[in-house]
């Protein structure tokens, strides 16, 4: 296991633990640090385990698509609903979208991709079904992550929806269209990554413990933080919503990991669908 992603991921977790303990401009700095460190941990892990080309594709697809969707979203209200970002809080902005925001898409996507990949590669199914399942599961996992992210950031005043559309029970400040928009954008990201992943043809890494650990930390840690440590009535509801929807990936992940072997164990040979020996 490469050390650099572990160190950066640990620093990101440390900043997340610090987040409820600070406020004001200090919390803004911590928020930026969390996003930057999570994105860096993902990029480093991808580069070291899947190759520089794959990591570059990851950034272009996730941060690039994310930034494009944010530009369109803030300008037109499509696909997330009408919203705007607070300025001069999350660092510099480009066209009124904080530059750090596209990195959040990378930071959220990669751990979910790795967690879903861990599950899908251990299912007895056809390649076509596995491909479709990975795309759908990654998109659902991203929506689950956003069920934590948006209520937390809206509560902190980092961005605000202006239209009075209906929201989830207990979370009225965020319209349902936002989650539909996330599902559409995340599905597009996952489909493009699935296609390019096959085109690049990199061997699958034997150890995804770092991104899977970040996935589990986000899933379980965010539920605890929203339920107990962070202030805001909407967060009590988002704790449940995020836990349930991310759990659609998390529960199979934990079950399969316990069934097969501990996370982070060394590579072992397994016969893939083509009949050749590949590490998984």
UniProtKB/TrEMBL annotation:
Pfam families linked to this entry: Caroten_synth
Protein keywords: Membrane, Transmembrane, Transmembrane helix
InterPro entries: CruF-like
Top-level taxon of origin: Bacteria
Entry keyword annotation includes Transmembrane helix: yes
The UniProt record lists the keyword Ribonucleoprotein: no
Coiled coil: none
Transmembrane segments: 30-48, 55-80, 100-120, 132-149, 179-197, 209-229, 235-257
Entry protein name: Carotenoid biosynthesis protein
């Amino acid at each position: 296991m490469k050390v650099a992603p572990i160190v950066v991921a640990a620093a990101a977790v440390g900043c997340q633990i610090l987040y409820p303990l600070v406020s004001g401009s200090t919390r803004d700095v911590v928020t930026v640090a969390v996003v930057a460190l999570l994105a860096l941990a993902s990029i480093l892990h991808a580069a070291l385990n899947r190759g520089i080309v794959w990591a570059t594709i990851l950034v272009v697809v996730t941060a690039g698509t994310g930034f494009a969707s944010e530009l369109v979203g803030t300008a037109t209200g499509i696909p997330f609903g009408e919203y705007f970002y607070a300025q001069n809080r999350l660092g510099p902005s480009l066209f009124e979208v904080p530059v750090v925001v596209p990195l959040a898409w990378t930071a959220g996507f990669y751990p979910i991709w790795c967690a879903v990949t861990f599950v899908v590669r251990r299912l007895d199914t056809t390649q076509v079904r596995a491909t479709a399942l990975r795309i759908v599961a990654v998109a659902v996992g991203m929506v689950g992550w956003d069920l934590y992210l948006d209520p937390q950031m809206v509560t902190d005043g980092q961005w605000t929806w202006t239209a009075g559309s209906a929201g989830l029970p207990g979370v009225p400040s965020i319209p349902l269209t936002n989650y539909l928009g996330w599902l559409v954008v995340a599905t597009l990201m996952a489909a493009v990554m699935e296609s390019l992943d096959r085109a690049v043809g990199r061997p699958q890494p034997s150890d995804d413990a770092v991104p899977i650990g970040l996935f589990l930390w986000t899933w379980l840690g965010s539920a605890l933080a929203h339920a107990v440590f962070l202030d805001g009535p909407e967060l009590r509801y988002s704790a449940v919503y995020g836990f349930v929807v991310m759990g659609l990936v998390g529960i199979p992940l934990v079950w399969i990991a316990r069934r097969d072997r501990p996370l982070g164990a060394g590579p072992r040979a397994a016969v893939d669908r083509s009949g050749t020996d590949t590490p998984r």
